[in-house]
Amino acid sequence: MPFPITRLRRLRATPTLREMVRETQLDPRDLIYPLFAVHGEAVRRPVSSMPGVYQLSVDQLVREAQECHALGIPAVILFGVPAHKDAQGSENFSDDGIVQRAVRALKAALPQLIVIADLCMCEYTDHGHCGIVRDGQIDNDATLEILGRAAVSYARAGADIVAPSGMMDGMVASIRSALDEAGFANVSILSYAIKYASAFYGPFREAAEGAPKFGDRKTHQMDPANAREALRELELDIQEGADMVMVKPALSYLDIVHRVRQATHLPVAAYNVSGEYAMVKAAAANGWLDERAIVLEVLTSIKRAGADLILTYHAKDAARWLAGM
Ligand code: PBG
Q: Looking at domain 24-322, which CATH architecture does it have?
């Protein structure tokens, strides 16, 4: 029925009516909070390009996770800044590594909190690349073995989920078999299945100290111009045994989130990355945007596009705002 029989404004007339017909509900249970673990004690080092985000020693990280838990955020994802970097990224697969220590402390303090360990080599290698470098190139297959070892080490520390983010071909299958052979059949894999070579990761590279020393990540991360290829990445990761898949970044890739949502029954996560966070914080600090309204709108749009889970540095603020605090 056309106007004047149909008037869409009728259902927008009051806050209660709008709530009754709202299609997308954001909830703190949708959120995953990223944390950056560093060695030392009582360390709380601000990341200048990400106001409100800190590199945290394990004691501080536990406090932060307790805050998340109290706000109803079910999970955190850990990134590690190692004491020492080398060509293989040895601290990544050392049971004494910074992430392994952080996982043990978190699971001891908060057994119900879901602990996700990001799994990549770039923070651990002296060259800052996501794999073993041979003759200036990333050796895909040599990298897989190391990723398997790191996954097993994280699982041994108590991680519930490992999240490979290095975009190596075959990474999910080799991590799955390494975990299963080591007796960790119940540890899940959240694959960064669809990760673009994006300039939006800039601030993260300061936070995790993982910028490449030469070259870029375009030989393994996806070309931002491609959408069909995202579905090929998705299919492969499903076949290899991913339990959940991620699209990253989120905001410039909501079309991809939507396509992935339609193409799979797996849970879909989207990463509201560091550059997306930095833009909002910078505009808010200048008084150019209303931070609270923008953050809730951004996160709602990611969920509306089809994400079940959102990794976001805004998680604590958003959870507070959703609770009316
Ligand atoms: C790689 C990794 C990166 C991010 C998450 N995992 C950086 C990269 O690929 O260069 C980016 C996250 C963000 O920008 O918030 N370990």
A: Alpha-Beta Barrel (3.20)
pLDDT band at 74 (very low <50, low <70, confident <90, very high): very high
Percent of the chain with pLDDT over 70: 100
Ligand 1 centre distance from Cα of residue 175 (Å): 19
DSSP 188: E
Nearest atom in ligand 1 to 121's CA: 16
pLDDT digits (tens, 9 = 90+) for 99-150: 999 999 999 999 999 999 999 999 999 999 999 999 999 999 999 999 999 9
Query: Which two structure tokens, joined as six digits, stand for 76?
Result: 């955190």
* Ligand 1 pocket check for 190: Cβ under 6 Å: no
Domain boundaries, the chain: 24-322
Active site residues: 195, 248
Question: What pTM does this model have?
Answer: 0.97
- Interval between CA 249 and ligand 1 midpoint (Å): 9
